[in-house]
Specification:
The chain contains 6 helices and 22 strands. The chain is of the alpha+beta class. Strands 9, 13, 15, 17, 18, 20 and 21 form a 7-stranded mixed sheet that branches. The longest helix has 23 residues.
Length: 331
C-alpha cells in the first residue's frame, strides 16, 4: 500500500514518470544508506546536554540522624560524542550515585562536635567518574555541593497520659481513674525533638454506657522521627456500682486568734456522699472534716462551711446546710 501511494505521489508531480517497484526499492536502499551515513556523521560530533541523575545514601553513622533534606537527584551538564551521550540517555534505570556517608566523614563525626559536612562538586565528579563512561565529560553539577547536617540520637523516659474517655452506665462510677502499664515509656530520636517532649499520649478512645471493668491494649500516638519502646500500653479502668450514704460531722473552727472562741449553730452538719459499694463499709466520720476558716467569715453574715474528704474512693459529696450561724466569745 505504501509503495502504491509513493508511486501515486511521484506521478502526481511528474505525470510522465514510469516509476516501478524496482525503482522504489532502489530509492529506499539509497535513502537508508544516506540516513546511516548522516547519523554516523552526526553522532561522531561533540555535544553538550543536561541530564538528571539519581543519588542514594547509605551507612549513616551510628547514633546519628540526618536532619537536613538531601537531594535524591542531581542535574548534570555533560559533553561528549553523540554515541556516548545517546547510550547514556537510553539507559532506563541508570546506576545511581551511591554515597557512603560514614566513609565520607571517615567516622570522625562520632568523636567530634561537627554537625555539618559538605560534599563538594569535586567529590561528586570523582564518584560519578566510576559509573559514567570515560567518554563523557562532566562540565557542571547542580547543586554544586550537598550539605549533610547531623544530630545525635538520644533517648529518655516520659510519662504516658491516657486519652481515654469513659462514660459509665447510670448508677456506676469510675474508681481510681485510668491506670496505664507501663506508666512510663522510652522514646528515642533526634536530640532536639526528644528534649521537647514532656509527655506521650495514647490514641483517643471513647467508651460509653460502661458497667464492667475495662482492660485494653492501646497504641501510643505516633510522633514524627520518634520511636517508642514499647509502642502500646495496657489500660485498666475499674467500673463499680455506687451507693449513697450520709454521715454527721462536728464543725471545727480553724485559724482563730488566741483571744477568741467560735461556737457554730448547729454544732454538726450532715454530709451526703457517693462511694463504690465495695468501699461503703470503710467510710466513717474520720473520712470527712467540716471546717470554718476565720479569715473566710464576715461578722455580718453566716459562716461558710468547707468540707474535706480523706478517702480516695469517695466520688462526690454535699453538705446541708452550706452556711451556719455562729457566736464569738472573747477568752
Amino acid at each position: 500500500m505504501i509503495k502504491e501511494k509513493f508511486i501515486k505521489v511521484v506521478r502526481k508531480f511528474n505525470p510522465k514518470s514510469n516509476t516501478t517497484e524496482r525503482d522504489l526499492r532502489i530509492f529506499f536502499i539509497c535513502f537508508v544508506i544516506s540516513l546511516f551515513f548522516w547519523l554516523l556523521n552526526a553522532l561522531s560530533k561533540t555535544y553538550s546536554t543536561n541530564i538528571t541523575y539519581p543519588v542514594q545514601y547509605k551507612e549513616i553513622p551510628r547514633d546519628k540522624v540526618i536532619i537536613s533534606e538531601l537531594p535524591q537527584k542531581i542535574q548534570l551538564r555533560i559533553n561528549g560524542f553523540g554515541f556516548a551521550l545517546l547510550r547514556l540517555k537510553m539507559q532506563l534505570n541508570p546506576t545511581p550515585l551511591l554515597f557512603n556517608i560514614s566513609k565520607f566523614t571517615n567516622k570522625n563525626i562520632l568523636a567530634s562536635n561537627d554537625t555539618t559536612f559538605a560534599i563538594s562538586s569535586i567529590q561528586l565528579k570523582k564518584q560519578l567518574s566510576h559509573i559514567i563512561s570515560s567518554e563523557i565529560n562532566i562540565e557542571d553539577i547542580e547543586p554544586s555541593s550537598i550539605y549533610i547536617k547531623f544530630e545525635d540520637i538520644i533517648q529518655k523516659k516520659v510519662k504516658v497520659v491516657p486519652q481515654i474517655k469513659i462514660t459509665p452506665k447510670q448508677q456506676f462510677i469510675l474508681v481510681n481513674g485510668i491506670k496505664t502499664t507501663p506508666a512510663w515509656v522510652t522514646i528515642r530520636g533526634p536530640r532536639s525533638v526528644v528534649k521537647a517532649i514532656k509527655l506521650i499520649y495514647t490514641e483517643q478512645q471513647d467508651y460509653h454506657d460502661i458497667s464492667m471493668p475495662i482492660k485494653r491494649l492501646v497504641p501510643l500516638n505516633k510522633i514524627s522521627e520518634i520511636s517508642t519502646i514499647p509502642n502500646n500500653v495496657k489500660i485498666e479502668a475499674n467500673i463499680e456500682q455506687y451507693t449513697e450514704g450520709k454521715i454527721s460531722k462536728e464543725i471545727k473552727a480553724i485559724n482563730l486568734p488566741d483571744s477568741i472562741s467560735l461556737h457554730a449553730f448547729p454544732k454538726s452538719v450532715e454530709i451526703t456522699y457517693t462511694v463504690p459499694i465495695s468501699q461503703f463499709k470503710n467510710i466513717n466520720a474520720s473520712s470527712f472534716e467540716a471546717k470554718i476558716y476565720w479569715d473566710s467569715i464576715s461578722l455580718s453574715q453566716k459562716a461558710p462551711l468547707h468540707i474535706e474528704s480523706h478517702n480516695q474512693y469517695i466520688h462526690s459529696y454535699s453538705v446541708q446546710p452550706e452556711e451556719v450561724d455562729y457566736i464569738i466569745d472573747k477568752n
